[in-house]
Design goal:
Blueprint (H helix, E strand, L loop, with lengths): L1 E3 L5 E3 L19 E6 L2 E8 L4 E5 L4 E9 L1 E5 L2 E5 L4 E4 L5 E4 L4 E8 L13
Antiparallel strand pairs: 1-2, 3-4, 4-11, 5-10, 6-9, 6-11, 7-8, 7-10
Length: 124
């Protein structure tokens, strides 16, 4: 059974992904958009040992899930060492840095997608 999304597209009721089996060649240079609709966007990112997502922010509420490995997260809430199964939430426009000393696989969920102010007028 499926749902009809705005625009008439048919959408399955349930979708699933094995986040540990998706190929992530190239570390941070090759993120994989796993899911993307107006409700949100899920992006799987591989961090090789020593790689980081430097100081950044997004317009959306961001949820970071550590799928595998370990990361050091710094943001408005202070530093945090996080391992598999950890969920970290960030407010829209909250600055953060995510680094992995040994390598990690993280899922970044942005909601809603795109957030208010993400695109310049007429860009979407």
């Amino acid at each position: 059974m499926s749902l009809v999304a705005p625009g008439g597209d048919t959408v399955p009721r349930m979708q699933s992904w094995n986040l540990q089996e998706i190929d992530l060649q190239g570390g941070t240079r090759s993120p994989v958009v796993v899911f993307s609709r107006d409700e949100g966007r899920a992006v799987l990112i591989g961090l090789d040992a020593g790689q980081e997502l430097g100081d950044h922010q997004v317009k959306e509420t961001a949820f970071l899930v550590v799928v595998d490995g370990d990361v050091d997260v710094s943001g408005d809430g202070g530093p945090l060492a996080a391992g598999p199964g950890t969920l970290v939430a960030f407010e829209p426009n909250e600055r953060r840095r995510v680094a992995s000393p040994h390598g990690a696989r993280i899922l970044l969920v942005l909601a809603p997608w795109p957030g208010v102010g993400h695109y310049a007028a007429g860009e979407r």
